[in-house]
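Record now logged underneath.
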Amino acid sequence: MIQVLLVDDHTVLRDGIRSILDLESDIQVAGEAVSGNEVLMKVEEYRPDCILMDINLPGKNGIEVTSLVKSQYPNCRVLVLTMFEDDEYLMEALRAGADGYLLKDSSSEQVVAAIRMVSQGDSVIHPRMTKKLITYHQQTKSESNENTLTEREKEILFELVKGLSNKEIAEALFISDKTVKIHINKIFKKLNVKSRSQAVIYAVRHQLVPFS
């Protein structure tokens, strides 16, 4: 059972998401928080597997809170659900350690699927935001970096940038899920990152994978 903490200051939105998640047999809403300052207390109380985090919160904003949560509870997944489509909000959220970034115009099916994916260790970024992420870094001056990634690791990193899960990568490259996981762990160590989202940022910033 995936335990979820809902963080949003709008009661109607929280009630709507709760009603959606209550229909899922493998997801349970453990609790709710209405302000940034309340989140850490709720995380300590409920120990959720995943936080559905708004950015625009009273007190500390969702990005600040995400950074605090990830530093104190690194195994807790944070899925940002926001109306903000700005590049900077996306980048700041990922730098803070967010495991996913969805927009509030996402369907209920997309939200449910994203919760499952981040809870399994995958990364989810809204398709419109993925394009913005790539464009953002293509517009910034990035020096060419030599790296120690093998060709296989580069292939897997490219699939990560495309947003594929471990299972999808395994099927695309005709290797096992276990092999994908081993390669991803090696990629994290070589790039000195801690999450799939941070690996994606690094890959785009340093042009480690080709883009069409």
Summary: The radius of gyration is 17 Å. Residues 177-191 form the longest helix (15 residues).
